[in-house]
């Protein structure tokens, strides 16, 4: 076998290996993305649920009367 064929065969095997590795990594990336989205949705739901279930302090209505200032002439 000549060197060109051996290099082509090695490059072909390396490309197949890289393709399989990239496919494996992409699948794990998709899985981790789905898990992260689920965790973000759950955290948002818990945050909204806790904010509505916690007792809120009552706000005092603002008075319509103005405070008299002592600097008026």
What distinguishing features does this structure have?
single chain; 73 residues; mainly alpha; 1 helix; 0% strand
Q: Describe it for me?
A:
The protein is an all-alpha fold and 73 residues long. It has a domain at 25-53. 70% of the residues lie in helices and 0% in strands. It contains 1 helix and no strands. The protein has one helix at residues 3-53. The longest helix has 51 residues, at 3-53. The chain is rod-shaped and about 105 Å long. It starts with a helix and ends in a 20-residue tail after the last helix.
Structural class: mainly alpha
- Percent of sequence in beta strands: under 5%
What are the secondary-structure elements, in order, as H or E?
H
Radius of gyration: 33 Å
How much helix, percentage-wise, in residues? 55-70%
Low-confidence stretches: none
User: What's the shape?
Assistant: rod-shaped
The pLDDT mean sits at 86
The main sheet comes to: none
DSSP strand count: 0
| SS field, number of helical segments | 1
Termini separation comes to: 109 Å
